[in-house]
Design a protein that fits this description.
Layout (H helix, E strand, L loop, with lengths): L4 H10 E2 L4 E4 L2 E3 L3 H8 L18 H9 L10 E3 H10 L8 H20 L7 E3 H4 L34 E5 L2 E5 L21 H9 L9 H4 L1 H8 L18 H10 L20 H12 L3
Length: 293
């Protein structure tokens, strides 16, 4: 690409940082949101690009998960674009790749776009790690109360000592498990593979209990679960505090083997691994139809 250095020099001299505009002899002019939309085709009414710059404790593992490989870094907070380019060229001829590999490869391409057009730096050969945060999945606020905890009445923190208690919640005939060990990131802790909840048979029995017109002593009938509640202080789940809500690879592998990937007709029973048997084919068919609509 050829540059008109004389024009660029003239514009640089006319730029006023106080007003973010060019002060020309005929008046002010600048780059507007209209220019961004018309020239680049980008959405200009979305969320602001902001957030914290906290880096994960294991940066190499983070990059491996996000991009599919660990590129060379320039210091601690930037990666070299040449490393991204070499990785893409090395795997350019691979056609049969998984959905995850396709997503990781797309992130590499987008990283080039971000580094070269929108968030370029003086060196023009690296991209800051916090820019890569834009390529992550939509952000989920794991600890929404931290910044407001000190402003809340004391009553809101009553019982804080059992917030992470693995116990059972009661309402007469209703008994439901409380499993904070499955959501430790909501408490600012590292998530590990949790213990199993109640077995499926026992859960189904509890869920089938209906309110009866007969007089029943639920404290007696649910004595084993009531005892669990009274032992709540001894069942608090310990956790390792972390600054960044990351989940280690063993947990992610375990979770993806158990969770349901796609929403489907609830009349279909999931298989033993937790996935709906026909969900992937339904999802693929939906994608194919959307391309023709």
């Amino acid at each position: 690409m050829e540059y008109d250095h004389h024009l660029l020099t003239a514009l640089a001299e006319r730029w006023r940082p106080e007003t973010h505009s060019f002060h020309l002899s005929i008046g002010e002019a600048t780059i507007t949101l209209q220019d961004v939309g018309m020239l680049l085709g980008l959405c200009v009414d979305g969320l602001p690009i902001t957030g914290n710059e906290l880096y994960p404790s294991d940066i190499d593992e983070y990059l491996e998960r996000l991009l599919g490989f660990c590129p060379k870094r320039d210091g601690k907070t930037a990666i070299r674009l040449a490393s991204l380019r070499q990785h893409l060229e090395l795997h350019r001829d691979r056609v049969k790749i998984s959905n995850l590999e396709a997503l990781q490869r797309a992130r590499c391409h987008v990283a080039f776009l971000l580094a070269g057009c929108f968030f370029s730096n003086k060196s023009q050969n690296k991209i800051d790690l916090f820019v890569l945060r834009l390529l992550e999945d939509p952000e989920f606020l794991w600890t929404p109360y931290v910044e407001h905890m000190h402003t809340l009445p004391d009553g809101c923190r009553h019982g804080e000592h059992i917030w992470r208690s693995r116990t059972y919640l009661h309402y007469y005939y209703i008994v439901e498990g409380h499993y904070p060990d499955r959501v430790m990131r909501q408490f600012g802790c590292r998530q590990v593979i949790p213990d199993d909840p109640l077995n499926e048979t026992e859960t189904q029995i509890l869920h089938r209990i209906k309110r009866s017109s007969h007089h029943r002593n639920w404290e007696r009938d649910h004595a084993i679960y009531v005892q669990e509640w009274h032992s709540q202080a001894n069942r608090v789940v310990e956790g390792t505090p972390i600054a960044y809500p990351e989940a280690p690879p063993p947990y992610r592998s375990w979770y993806h083997s158990k969770t349901v990937q796609f929403i489907q007709d609830p009349s279909h029973e999931p298989d033993a691994g937790g996935y709906h048997g026909h969900s992937e084919s339904v999802h693929a068919l939906s994608d194919e139809l959307s391309h023709h609509m």
